[in-house]
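The protein record filed here:
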Amino acid sequence: MREILGRRRRLRFRRKGRSAQLGAALTCATEWHWPVLPGVGLTAAGGRGDRGRGCACPDPECVVPGAHPFDPGLLAASTDERLVRWWWSNRPDAPLLLATGGRAPCAVSLPAVAGARALAALDRMGMRLGPVVATPTRWSLLVAPYSLEQLGELLYAKDSVPSSLRFHGEGGYLVLPPSVVGTGQVRWERAPLAGSATPWLPDVEAVVDALVEASTSAPGGGSRLAY
């Protein structure tokens, strides 16, 4: 009898995990109107993934295991509730991807150590920040949508921009909590306010200087790409 009860508890735990994943996708799509889609996810096989889990895509050397689109492709990202429910009903553990740009948020990401420094610097300045996504290796600050022209003019004015900075704009994507990908658990370092409308986002101009400075002063000068 004890073994049967134990199995039931584990089954309930898995269903709870699925509800959290689907719930996050529905919040993004239907409440915040952010276009989302499921990521490729992980397999039990060995590879570059965390704890011996590899990417479910065909590339055995995938450098972003589990954390990218595959099937469906990025262009399928949607805010349609029925489609979102169908995706995560069929793949309840699939990572949650945000298609960035357009009317959706953009993001700037940097290595985790530099990200912590940047947030501390922005806090000291009294800067209001939007949501911040964290993985064990990278932190991503969500910002208001920007165009490639706007970003180009902004970066052109800088003396240098570390290659470890990544800009997730039109045609890009970002993995969101509560996903689990090859580098580990994805979480909110700064979570959107519970029950709020669409989360407030700062302009990229307001944060980019602190991010460039934090990346430049990081070990290695911010030149090393950390996935």
